[in-house]
Amino acid sequence: MQFEEFESFGSDTPPAARAPGADAASPLVRLQYLIDNTPAIIYCTVPSGDFKMTFVSNNAYNVLGYRPEEMVADPNFWFDHIHPDDAPAIFSSLALVFVEGQRAYEYRFRAADGAYLWMHDTLRLIRDEQGAPLEVIGSLTDITIRKTMEEALYSKGQEQQLLIGRLQEAQNQLLQSEKMASIGQLAAGIAHEINNPVGFVNSNMGSLQKYVETLFGVVREYDAAIAAHSPPPALTAAIAQIGKRADLAFLQDDVTDLVRESMDGLKRVKDIVQALKDFSHVGENEWQVADLHHGLDSTLNIVSNEIKYKATVDKQYGQLPQVTCLASQLNQVFMNLLVNAGHAIKEKGVITIRTGAEDGWVWVAVSDTGCGIAQEHLNRIFEPFFTTKPVGSGTGLGLSLSYGIVNKHGGRIDVASVPGEGTTFTVRLPVVPPAAAPTGAG
Question: What pTM was computed for the model?
Fold first, then answer.
């Protein structure tokens, strides 16, 4: 089928304006009219590697602005007008037309005005009676409007996905906040229940310490009285034997140590209870003036079991002013950073906490000597659900929630990490956050 027999190239009259007229009875003229006015450009090429065009329908002028004869005259016209970004994928698979018999492509084609139009191109191989390739027939349709709509829909979909992600992040942070509030209520109840028995045990231990001191004072006075009155040797020997059997010297040293250690242990319990009470206010939304060092120390008591077997804590506190903040929420940030630092240390290391203040800002830096964070992960660590921990070892919400809390305070979190050497998170906060600053009247 050789369309070039129609000899329609180079007509000066736009094809859409040429109605069949008196020649409508001619099948070839009618066919020419239909081809020239169809939305698709019909073309033929030689069945060889260069795909030189041998026929192009007249409507190419309406669609692309090129005369069919100039398209046919240039053997590289088709190749030269495909967008450079689209050409490699087409050229690498064009030979499949001879295997499959038909191929379809969507690509950008440069029109006469220099603009690129999106085209849908269907190529079909025609064979002769012996099965040898005869020619390739193509149908080229302008799909620019459809592509523009698809891109708009894709962009809209991306915006919706971003909005959905933000809503999910907000929901997850809300759930996390509610979870922490529930844990805080539980901690408050536990602290209250522990506080009562600790109170009377501590009081009893204080009394016991006084009684032990009094008792051993009596024993010392007995010894002094016996020595002063020179009792019979038999009585002196009997008293000495009683003291030896009881090992009074050891008892005096050991009981004193036991009481002192017990008092120290009770003090630790009281500190933990106080830390639980401080932590129990995680749901409060009242801005207050707080001592960040006190918050750090309370948080260290809470997380000590997480890190004490893996790291020593080096506190390098500077001079900090009182900060207006949501104290319990900042404690949660400190807890997340300390727990993460502990998890980053595989065996034994050091967690360093440094603080300082300058120009109306305070900063708290938590450093570890752990495994560090890969460079490609640094820009994602504050994303919800992103975690470098093994599956089941973390939710990926800790740093995201911390970022939100610090941002609420008008501050920021910076991170610096060297893989294999360690990581430093630095929380920077204004002494008086914008959200807590009093607004003027008027």
Answer: 0.41
